Amino acid sequence: LSSIAPWNMQFKTNIINYFLTGIGERYMNPTFGTPLRNQLFENITQDSLTNVKDIIRQGLYLYFPDVSPSKMEVEGTPDSNTISFFMSYSIKDTNINDELTINFEV
How far separated are the first and last CA of the chain, in Å rounded? Predict the structure, then answer.
């Protein structure tokens, strides 16, 4: 178990890094990252929250194919321009299950 824990933590850190990186921010890899922070400057509606969920799913599919999300929740707080993202996931071909929460705020 101790050999799996550091690997799992690195995996989780990579996912967080991906979602907090804007497209074009990473040197020599301009397609890495997401436009999620840009969503904070749009009106937070059910459609924009659905768009956030789609962006997350697409990023996981492209950059983290071994991640299998079991639950995804996206909530918005329009008054404070905050979007909260929660995901529980497993890593394929392992017995690793974990959760991740990211808050995007202006």
Answer: 39
Q: Nearest Cα to 74, choosing from 65, 82, 84, 64?
A: 84
Whole-prediction pTM value? 0.80
Q: Which string of DSSP letters, residue by residue, matches 18-78? A: HHHSBTT-STT-TT-SBSGGGGGGS---HHHHHHHHHHHHHHHHHH-TTEEEEEEEEEEEG
Closest-CA residue to 22 (of 12, 32, 13) = 32
Over residues 28-44, the mean pLDDT reads 85
Q: What is the pLDDT of residue 38?
A: 82
